[in-house]
C-alpha cells in the first residue's frame, strides 16, 4: 500500500517584539524662589483685605466726630453721634403743600436743628396718636429751637387731609420713594416705613435715630429738649456765679485802692504839720 506523504506546514514566523514604551518626558521648570515668596505674600494680603465701606467717613474739622456721607438709598444706617454731609442726603422730598425741599434746606432754615418722626400711613389709628402727641407737645418740643416735621410715603393730598383734620401745627413731608426715610434708617424691607424718630442739629450731628412707638418717639425728643434746657439752666447758674466772683474781686480792688489813697493822704497831712512846727 503506497504511503501518502503530507506536506508539513511551515512554522509561523515569531511575532515581532513590541517596541519599548517611550518614557514620558519630564520637563523641569525652575522656580524663582524670590518670585514665589512675593506671590504668596500678595495672595495673603488680597485675602485679608476688607471690602471698602459704602459709607465715606472722614473727621469733622471742628469736633473730631466722624462725618458720614450716606448714599440716597440709605445703605448704611446713621448712628447717634455721626455728623452727616447734608448735601444730597436723603434726596428730595415734598411738603404737604407741594413744595420741593431737602433735609439740608430744612436744617438750614431751622434755629437749632430738626426733629422728624416717621409714620407708616396717614390717618390710621397709630399714626394719628403719634401725630397728636407731637401736636400736643409742640410748644415745649420747639422751645429750644428744634423744628418738628412728620415724614411718610403718603401723597401731598393724603398728608394735607391728615394735617387739616388733626389740626397739626407742623409741616408733613411726603417721600413716595422713601429716599429720605431710607437714608435715616427707617425704611422697612422690602417696602414700607418703620415708625421712628430722627433728630439732627445745625452742624449735621445726629442726636437721635431710632424706631419707636407713637409715645416713645415723642419722648425721645422731650428728653433731648429737657437736656438742652437743663444745660442752659446750669450754664446760666455758672455765668451768674462767675459774674458774682468777678464783682467781688472788683470790689476788693476798689477797697484796696481807697485804703491806699487814704494812707497817702494821712501821711501828707502829718508831714505838713511837722513842717509848720519847724
From TrEMBL:
Residue ranges of the TM segments: none
Thioredoxin domain ranges (all copies): 45-230
Compositionally biased intervals (Basic residues): 1-10
One term under GO cellular component: cytoplasm
Main localization, broad class: nucleus
Entry EC number(s): 1.11.1.24
CDD domains: PRX_BCP
GO biological process per UniProt: cell redox homeostasis; cellular response to oxidative stress
GO terms for MF: thioredoxin peroxidase activity
UniProt cross-references to SUPFAM superfamilies, sorted A to Z: Thioredoxin-like
Chain intervals for the UniProt region annotation (Disordered): 1-34
Subcellular location: Nucleus
InterPro entries registered for this protein in UniProt: AhpC/TSA, Peroxiredoxin_BCP/PrxQ, Thioredoxin-like_sf, Thioredoxin_domain
Family: Belongs to the peroxiredoxin family. BCP/PrxQ subfamily.
Subunit structure: Monomer.
Protein name (Swiss-Prot/TrEMBL): thioredoxin-dependent peroxiredoxin
Source organism of the structure: Glutinoglossum americanum
